[in-house]
Fold this sequence. Notes:
Elements: H1 14-33, H2 38-57
Amino acid sequence: MAIKEQQHPFYKPLWRRVVIVAVVAAWTIVEVMTGADGFWLLLSGGMLAYSIYIFFITWPKDTPEGDGTPPS
């Protein structure tokens, strides 16, 4: 059974998603500043774009809290 990346509990806290995107952004900046080979720049830039897209643009806005049972 495969689950979507966005449904994994590790990514639920906002601070973790921000740290992941910040690390990838820092890597991309290092690649740009050092004049790296086009492959590594493309790889890090693609990872940055994908992580922003997954963690912020398409992130589910209304995630249910708890186990899904209504409060009594």
